[in-house]
């Protein structure tokens, strides 16, 4: 009996598996996708453990601190320029920086905002120098007038910002005095009037904001100049011209009303009114 010949042809399933293995997608999935999936499962299992999570966080924080707190990034000193002793102390308190500190932990923009929030500070610049010092250069607000309202006396800058309060009130004869609600917001107009007053300047006791829309100028001897809402400087120059030519403000005048530029009005003092009536009565008696 003849032995049967061995069939070396692959079986149907083996043939299909061979063809399937030749597919690029299958080979990529088995060689890369499957190992990555196993690794992801292992890592996910480890990451789900709270103890492992705490250990990873501790390692990350340690690495972060090692970089941030490196001596190369240390800030060792604080230098404040452009401020007096009292204001320097206020700036230091506003910064609240505990030295030594890491420059990577300092938010310079936020620190600058805290410094500029101080009333006496106009602008501030913060830099960290090569000498590891935090340098703060400040520009103080310059007071240009004394504003009096119901709360008291205040120094204001050209923008009407209150620089500081005057309590108890010291003498500031070098600054014009303004009064009334809304006067600080229009301090520029008051300064223009003070400059235009010229020779009347020494006699000005203050400028009063009336109805939050116009100015009165209070002079010594109880005199007052009532100015219009618009063209106040021109109206004041008109009064000044009358005074220089006729010495009007040297007479018994209580007020000069310039609110209507076309019809200026002069208000006499009570003494001047009585004297005028007496003279008229004398003239009337002589005529009789």
From TrEMBL:
Primary site of residence: membrane
Pfam family, one: FtsQ_DivIB_C
Alphabetical UniProt keywords: Cell cycle, Cell division, Cell inner membrane, Cell membrane, Membrane, Transmembrane, Transmembrane helix
Domain (POTRA) ranges: 73-141
One annotated GO biological process: FtsZ-dependent cytokinesis
Cell location: Cell inner membrane; Membrane
GO CC term (a single one): plasma membrane
Protein topology in the membrane: Single-pass type II membrane protein
Superkingdom classification of source: Bacteria
HAMAP family reported in the protein's UniProt record: FtsQ_subfam
Biological function: Essential cell division protein.
Record family assignment: Belongs to the FtsQ/DivIB family. FtsQ subfamily.
Protein name per the record: Cell division protein FtsQ
Organism: Pontivivens ytuae
Underlying gene: ftsQ
